[in-house]
Design goal:
The chain is an alpha/beta fold. It is 29% helix and 20% strand. β2, α4 and β3 form a beta-alpha-beta unit. The longest helix has 15 residues. The structure holds S-adenosylmethionine (SAM).
């Protein structure tokens, strides 16, 4: 599938702070490896040479290179493209480039060359520095570059990545469509900060962070989870993981569509499905 954008196109977006940290996005990668490893190993049809794109990797390319090592354990030839809007950050990363690891200046309109395509985009701690009005155009533009069935994980973490929340969006299967479908909102904690659901509110993605107010779905979600946490507090004696898991099971019993497999809950992941909102579209 050829990309409709030439590399000379002006990068869409704004240079922002480049703060990152070693292994900050390890849990994001581990999540993808557990959620859909086939997305990384797929070599059929147009997926054969399709990139994993790390958008906005920061002042150096450590998170991109760490992901390369992690993902190439299951696909040693996975093509990877680190994209930065800051030219100097790309220049600094270039010594790490090789035949399957690329670094290019670009923005939400990804710097793809003719014939190149994308299977997975990770955009972490990028949109948090934008205004909410920039969210929909950024998503719409990114969607144009991703193969039907491809995925984007876009979210915000705390400085060391022990806590994050991310949108998981799927490129719709109609090949001529440029829209995402919201698949899930994913909450992640490794419990180093304890377990207080209020902590998640500070790292909500841009489309939610200003909406934790009465009348909004994300507000209702937190209110329901808060009462589930209180109702299951007796499980705390067995440890924070058990408490987290019990609170999420209790929340699901209130009608929220959540994946209750232990492999997610015991590792501190809450996957909330059934987000009807189409990314980039109107809020419901
Ligand atoms: C805070 S850093 C995040 C680094 C890394 N992803 C992490 O989570 O640790 C954000 C980076 O995104 C870059 N950036 C901002 N807008 C961008 C865009 N539209 N396209 C590409 N990079 C962008 C900034 O230049 C900055 O280096």
């Amino acid at each position: 599938m050829s990309a409709p954008y030439a590399i000379s196109k002006k990068p869409m977006g704004l240079p922002t702070r480049g703060k990152t940290a070693a292994n900050r996005l390890r849990r994001v990668d581990n999540f993808i490896l557990l959620y859909e490893p086939s997305l990384l190993t797929r070599t059929t049809d147009s997926f054969r040479d399709a990139f994993f794109v790390d958008l906005g990797y920061g002042f150096d390319a450590r998170t991109t290179l760490e992901s390369a090592a992690r993902f190439r354990r299951i696909n040693p030839t996975l093509p990877i493209l680190g994209v930065e809007i800051d030219k100097e950050r790309v220049e600094a990363a270039l010594p790490h480039a090789d035949e399957i690891t690329h670094f290019r200046v670009g923005g939400f309109n990804l710097p793809l060359r003719a014939g190149e395509s994308v299977r997975l985009v990770r955009a972490f701690n990028v949109l948090r520095q934008y205004e909410e009005k920039d969210f929909a155009p950024a998503y719409e533009t990114l969607a144009r570059h991703v193969l039907p069935g491809g995925l984007m994980i876009e979210g915000t973490s705390n400085p060391y990545g022990s806590l994050w929340v991310a949108n998981l969006v799927r490129k719709t299967l109609e090949s001529d469509s440029s829209s995402w479908k919201m698949e899930a909102l994913v909450f992640s904690t490794n419990f180093r900060m304890g377990f207080d659901i209020a902590d998640f509110q500070a790292v909500l993605p841009k489309n939610h962070i200003h909406h934790v107010v009465k009348g909004e779905a994300i507000y209702d979600f937190f209110e329901a989870w808060k009462s589930s946490v209180a109702e299951t507090s007796s499980t705390k004696t067995f440890g924070l993981r058990q408490w987290f898991a019990a609170s999420v099971e209790n929340l699901a019993a209130k009608g929220y569509k959540i994946d209750l497999h232990k492999k997610w809950l015991m590792k501190g992941w809450l996957i909330w499905y059934g987000q009807e909102q189409v990314a980039g579209g109107e809020r419901p």
